[in-house]
Specification:
Layout: H1 6-9, H2 15-41, H3 44-51, H4 62-78, H5 82-119, H6 125-128, H7 130-146, H8 149-178, H9 184-211, H10 214-245, H11 251-259
Helix pairs in contact: 2-4, 4-5, 5-7, 8-9, 8-10, 9-10, 10-11
């Protein structure tokens, strides 16, 4: 709920906290229920054989692991045959995939509409039409799915996603810092996430360099450079704030000092 679609759909900014927090609680509860369903119906050895098979010729199938657990749960609770219950489990997973694709299509459509306004002073009517932007998003996703590029993009996408959250918290900490407010409740998790995600980018860098996967290697480097820039900006803001606390600078000078280019 903290993604790019929420801010574009909420009528009031004050609703963001209520919607986002309750969504987080529901998502956490769903994760707990999935773990309970798997742990209460499948033996660990059976689940391990499905998700982490010892035979290199057998592919990992976590969807089957959850679906089979759901099938046993339906059989024990409702008397539905395991085979039929497993199909229902697969449909549950597919339902989440469909909603994810729906959100991705809408988010991409919004981003395309904003992109055209950046590239063109007066975007053509076709570029403003939601059918065109939605279709463009669908075509791009089809290309990624057909080429199986998602498997290669997922590690760096997941890292970039968490890095964005970490840098966002750093920005919030800088904003609070400039106003003389408490920052530790934001700064501590931000530092933890920055360290872990940058470590992940460094691991991916080594992997992409060994594979000579230059597009993802360049993306990895860009993410590292951008994150380093935000970190440097935060440190400069922090140092300017410390200087300002002694009376040398005021709040507006702090913001100005953090935005000055270094020479």
């Amino acid at each position: 709920m903290a993604g790019g679609t929420t801010g574009k759909q909420l009528p009031l900014e004050t609703d963001a906290r209520k919607v986002g927090y309750n969504a987080m609680l529901l998502e956490s509860l769903l994760a707990v229920l999935v773990l309970v369903a798997i742990g209460s119906t499948l033996k660990f050895d059976d689940y391990k054989a499905i998700v982490w098979p010892s035979d290199p010729a057998v592919k990992s199938n976590p969807i089957l692991g959850f679906s089979l657990a759901a099938g046993h749960l339906f059989e024990q609770g409702l008397g539905i045959p395991v085979a039929l219950g497993t199909v229902f489990g697969i449909l549950l997973v597919e339902g989440f995939v469909v909603t994810t694709l729906d959100a991705a299509i809408r988010l991409n459509r919004y981003l395309f509409e904003e992109l055209w306004t950046v590239l063109f002073r007066q975007p053509p009517a076709l570029l403003k039409h939601y059918w065109f932007n939605s279709g463009l998003a669908v075509i791009l996703m089809w290309v990624l799915a057909y080429s199986n590029a998602f498997n290669r993009l997922w590690p760096i996408f997941a890292t970039a996603n968490q890095l964005l959250a970490a840098l966002g918290m750093l920005a919030i900490a800088a904003w609070l810092l400039c106003r003389g407010m408490r920052t530790m409740f934001v700064l501590v998790p931000a530092v933890f996430m920055v360290i872990t995600t940058i470590a992940s980018l460094l691991v991916l860098f080594k992997s992409y360099a060994a594979q000579r996967n230059y597009p993802l290697l360049i993306a990895d480097i860009l993410l590292l450079v951008l994150s380093a820039g935000v970190i440097v900006l935060f440190v400069r803001t922090f140092m300017a704030r410390r200087k300002g606390s002694s009376g040398a600078v005021g709040p507006m000078e702090v913001v100005a000092a953090s935005s000055k280019p270094s020479h």
